[in-house]
Amino acid sequence: MLQGEGRGLSGFWFFFWGGWLFWGSFFGVFEGGSRGGVCGMGAVFHVGLVYEILPYKCYKQYCFFVVSVAKKEDIRMGVLKLLNRHNIVFGDYKWTEFDDGFLNSNVESVSIVDTELKLKDRQPIDLSKSSLSLHIFHLNEEGPSSENLEEENEDIIAANHWVLPAAEFHGLWESLIYDSEVKSHLLDYVTTTLLFSDKNVDSNLISWNRVVLLHGPPGTGKTSLCKALAQKLTIRLSCRYRYGQLIEINSHSLFSKWFSESGKLVTKMFQKIQELIDDKDALVFVLIDEVESLTAARSAFKAGTEPSDAIRVVNAVLTQIDQIKRYPNVVILTTSNITEKIDMAFVDRADIKQFIGPPSTAAIFRIYLSCLEELMKCQIIYPRQQLLTLRELEMIGFVENNVSRLSLVLKEISRRSEGLSGRVLRKLPFLAHALYIQVSLFYSLSLFYSLYFGLV
To answer: Between residues 154 and 237, which one has the greater pLDDT?
Structure first.
């Protein structure tokens, strides 16, 4: 069974359980030639990439899940024929049923995703004029393992460790909705760091540390975005790296009950990370959630409000970051809810300091829309009703009619939900059902709206 994924210069990915997974990407307004070949380990496979000037910049992906032992070349040709037959799409799209018997037997789904990263508005996408590459990889379904450190004959769980791409993170990237181009900027950042490393740019003249700091209020998806980014890049860069490693450090566990030992625990943890980095086939992501726990401002220590052991922790973290930044296959992802308490020396080391705030009304509408589509797909909301996007409502001037009425109600619910975090927004459908639905296995969209008004 094949494992892995191939990519183009800006390629993206595919997943699948128990079989093969393919991804394709489309590109526009690029320059270049074509290339192909086998890259990465065993299953990694690159179909080829051709550049073509298009009337707009586009960046799309499609993925399909394979549950058979059919030859990958046969599947590739089958998917290409599908795209030739259905060559005009509007934004993201997914096929789950096919008019081709071979695809029905071997492919679970074909999806075009991430169109919003490059296309501001929904517009027709001509797949026949888009260049593409196909990728294959296998999801790791084993779940996280723990990294333990020994302290005074006692094992401390210092971190969780995933081998990427992981089934646990499948679909996480697509579920995160932001108003700004946060996701595309983060992808471009890591691509740039790898380019600079490839070209042997002197880091003494042009400084970059491979450190990302996401900050903002709780519940805005900072940690989830870090995990989704690691998953995305592992698949996207699989021609370069056979697999990814994600280490999520448990910051609080690194503070020892023994005086002066905390700094040593930090050093031990990074020594374990160094062992992973030494594997040149692995792309390593170090995730430090609530990084202020390990990098509290040393100015507070001087005032006598913090113990000196905490100073050793900050110094150890900064030293370890300076040591591992020499390696091209490591990226440090950090999050914080209270950036004003982070030591300025760490803040200065972050190449990207991205604020992640609560979603706007438009983003809330998109989040609710994705929730409702899922509930209708699972027939918890029944019968299925057509819902328009904000762009489609705008095109008809927000005029109320039989087609737009339910979508306009959702727009009003979104307005009333301003200030809620993404975490809370995605919990509300569950709460609406749990608190107000007593008997019915399903309910209408109109009833769902009435329940929502009771919550927001």
So the answer is: 237
Q: Which two tokens stand for residue 303?
A: 């005032």
Instruction: Write the CA distances from 80 to 28, 51, 52, 132, 134, integer angstroms.
Output: 18, 17, 18, 10, 10
- Model confidence at 456: pLDDT above 50: yes
Q: Is 264 buried (19+), middle (13-18) or exposed (0-12) by CB count in 10 A?
A: middle
11 vs 97, higher pLDDT: 97
Query: Which SS3 state, helix, strand or coil, does residue 101 take?
Result: helix
Percent of residues, the chain, with pLDDT higher than 90: 30
Return the bridge partners of 282, or none.
Answer: 243
Which value, to the nearest 10 degrees, does the dihedral of the CA atoms of residues 424, 425, 427, 429 take?
Answer: 150
Give the pLDDT of residue 217.
Answer: 92
Q: In whole angstroms, give the CA distance from residue 318 to residue 302.
A: 18
**Is pLDDT at 194 greater than 90 in this prediction?**
no
CA distance 376 to 58: 30
Total residues found in the chain within this entry: 456
Q: How far apart are CA 187 and CA 174, in angstroms?
A: 14
Q: For the chain, give every domain's residue range.
A: 20-136, 145-355, 361-455
> How far from 188 is each of 58, 137, 229, 400, CA to CA, in Å?
15, 22, 11, 41
Q: Which residues contact 19 (CB under 8 A, 6 or more apart)?
A: 1, 65, 66, 67, 68, 69
Q: How much is the mean pLDDT over the chain? A: 77
Q: What are phi and psi for residue 30, nearest 5 degrees?
A: -130, 165
**What span, in angstroms and rounded, lies between the C-alpha atoms of 92 and 122?**
9
The model carries a pTM of 0.78
Superfamily of structural domain 145-355: P-loop containing nucleotide triphosphate hydrolases (3.40.50.300)
Q: Is residue 47 classed as helix, strand or coil in its secondary structure?
A: strand
Three-state DSSP class for residue 304: coil
What is the distance between the terminal CA atoms of the chain, rounded to a whole angstrom? Answer: 49
Structure-block tokens of residue 136: 């294959």
3-state class percentages of the chain: helix first, strand second, coil last, to nearest 5: 40, 20, 40
pLDDT of 352 above 70: yes
409 HSE (CA, 13 A, CB side): 17
CB under 8 Å to 270, separation ≥6 — which residues? 316, 320, 323, 324
Instruction: Please tell me the distance from the alpha carbon of residue 260 to that of residue 374, in angstroms, as a whole number.
Output: 51
Under DSSP, is residue 381 helix (H, G, I), strand (E, B) or coil?
strand
Contact present, 267 and 276 (Cβ < 8 Å): no
